[in-house]
């Protein structure tokens, strides 16, 4: 059983930056493709970014492309989300998720992920 714990959320002004981390334990981290999702009040959980098991491949939602960067350090069992040029519409609870995917596979659907963190709140003020 894999446990995922997010950290790094907070309050930031529009145009600012935040860096989220997600620490994994209880499994072999390099076996998991990882993703970041977010959910704003009244909205469904939406895909933000994904990274393959080795970190060689990444994929982003159009809404964050060019502003957010996903990365991972398999030696530290951690996946990151660097968020720059933040906008008020980025306000949401951010979740990391992991799935037992084939080596280069990325997924954008929440249903494809097996494990989820508890979420961390990101609030961007205008």
Q: Characteristics of this structure?
A:
126 residues; 11 strands; mainly beta; globular; single chain
Write a brief caption for the model.
0% of the residues lie in helices and 48% in strands. It has 126 residues and is mainly β.
How would you describe this protein?
- The protein has 126 residues and is an all-beta fold.
- The chain contains no helices and eleven strands.
- It is globular and about 40 Å long.
Q: Write down the Rg.
A: 13 Å
User: Helix count?
Assistant: 0
The count of β-strands is 11
Biggest β-sheet, characterized? 7 strands, mixed
Helix content: under 10%
One letter per element, helices H and strands E, the order comes to EEEEEEEEEEE
N/C terminus separation? 40 Å
What number is the mean pLDDT?
96
Shape: globular
Uncertain regions: pLDDT < 50 for 5+ in a row?
none
Category by helix and strand content: mainly beta
β-strand percent reads over 45%
Topology:
Layout: E1 3-7, E2 10-13, E3 18-25, E4 33-39, E5 46-51, E6 58-60, E7 68-73, E8 78-83, E9 92-99, E10 115-116, E11 120-125
Parallel strand pairs: 2-11
Antiparallel strand pairs: 1-3, 3-8, 4-5, 4-9, 5-6, 7-8, 9-10, 9-11
């Amino acid at each position: 059983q894999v446990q995922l714990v997010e950290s790094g959320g907070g309050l930031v002004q529009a145009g600012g930056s935040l860096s989220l981390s997600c620490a994994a334990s209880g499994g072999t981290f390099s076996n998991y493709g990882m993703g970041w999702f977010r959910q704003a009040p009244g909205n469904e959980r939406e895909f933000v970014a994904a990274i393959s098991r080795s970190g060689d491949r990444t994929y982003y939602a159009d809404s964050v492309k060019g502003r957010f960067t996903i990365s991972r350090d398999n030696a530290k069992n951690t996946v990151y989300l660097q968020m720059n040029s933040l906008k008020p519409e980025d306000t949401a609870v951010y979740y990391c998720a992991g799935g037992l995917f084939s080596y280069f596979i990325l997924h954008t659907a929440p249903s494809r992920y097996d494990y989820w963190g508890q979420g961390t709140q990101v609030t961007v003020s205008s």
